[in-house]
Here is the input.
Amino acid sequence: MNYIDLFSGAGGLSEGFLNAGFSPIAHVEMDKAACNTLKTRIAFHYLNTTNKPEIYNFYLKGEIKRDELYQQVPDELLNSVINLPIGPENNETIFNLISQQLNGKEVDLIIGGPPCQAYSLVGRARSADGMESDPRNHLYIQYASYLEKYKPKLFVFENVLGLKSAKEGTYLEKMKTLFLEKGYKMKLYTVAANNFGVLQNRRRVIILGWREDINPNLPDLESIRIHSDFKVDSIFKDLPIIRAGEGVDKFVKYGTETNEYLKQNSIRNGIDILTQHVARPHTDQDKKIYKIAVNKWNNKGMRLDYNDLPEVLKTHKNRHSFFDRFKVVAQDLAYSQTVVAHIAKDGHYYIHPDIEQNRSISVREAARLQSFPDNYYFEGVKEGQNRTAAFKQIGNAVPPLMAYKIANLMRHLL
Here is the structure.
C-alpha cells in the first residue's frame, strides 16, 4: 500500500502512515528546512530496515555530518522528497518527478493538508481583508488536480476547523463540488488529538475521500476515544533541567528513567540519545512575567490575564484581546493548549511549569506534545541552525500518533 504526501511539512502525517505499514512514493513540500527533516527521517527508516540503525545514532550524537548520513541512503529515496511549491507553475515538473518514483505502479492514497493560515480564525482576524485575497484559499484546487492525475482509491485531507466557516462555508462547498467533478466523494470529521492519545488539545478537520467506483465502510473518526490517565507531566519528567538559553542540540543524556506514557506511545523509543532539548533565551522582563504566570497556576490554578500584570511589565499596546498571551503548559492537566507555528516567534504561550527552570518549552518538549518520537530530528536549512525552523515545523505538523490511528483505519479499508 503506497501514498503520495502533498504539503508534507515535517512529515507528521506521513510518519503515522509509515508506522501503519504504508510506503511513501513521494513527499512534496516547498519549505527547504522541512524537506531536510523529511530526508533525515527517510534515512532513519531506511537504516532501520537495513539493520544499520547505529549509523543514524552516530548522526544524533553529532559523530557524523548530515551529508555523511545522506550518503548512506539510495539517491532514489532522497529524491522522493520534492522541494517545490505545488501550483500551476510547478505541477508538470512535480508530476514527472513522481512518475519516476512510481515506475508504473498505481497510487493507493493521497494524503496531506494545504497550509491552513488562510482558513484559520486567528489568521482571518489579523488580516486586513479576512484572508480573502490569500492564494492559499485555493490550494484545494491543486489537491484536486493530483486526485485527477493519479486517481488514488482514497485520500486523507487535514486542515483547521476554520475551513468549515471560511467565507461562510463556500470554500468547503466548492471543494466538495470540485472533488466530485474529479470523481471523488468525501466525508468531513471534526477530531481532537487528545482523543487519539496525544497530550494536547488540538482540534482539526479530517476529510476522508474515496473514488466513486469504491463503496467503503468508513470509520467514524469522531467516536474515537482512547482512554488515558496520563497527564502532561509525562513529557517533562525524564528530561534534564535546563534554563532559558540552555540545552544541547545533539546528544545529551536523559535526566531519569522513562515513564509509561513515553513507552506506550513509542516516544522515548529504546535509545538513550536525547536531541534538541534546547530552550530559547528570554529577556529579564519575560522571565519575570513567566514567574508570575507559573506561580499563579501552580498555587491558585489560575491563568494569567495580561491586564493583571504590574504596569511596568506591560509593553504590548493591545490591551483588548489576547489576554492569555502568556500561558503555562500545565503539567497537572490531561492535555496542553494547541501547539501552533507561532511558537517559532516566541514561547510566551508555552511556559514551562517548573518555576526554577523559568523558560518556555524546549524544541524536544514541543515535539513530545505533538507525539513525535525522540529520535525524530528536525532540520534547518543549514546544519546546526535549526531551533526556529524546528519550532515552525512542529507547530504546523499533524501529530504522528493521531495520524497512525487514522492510517490503521485506512489500511483496513484498503
The longest strand covers residues 184-192. The longest helix spans residues 32-49. Residues 123-136 have pLDDT under 50 and may be disordered. The domain at 2-225+398-413 is CATH 3.40.50.150 (Rossmann fold).
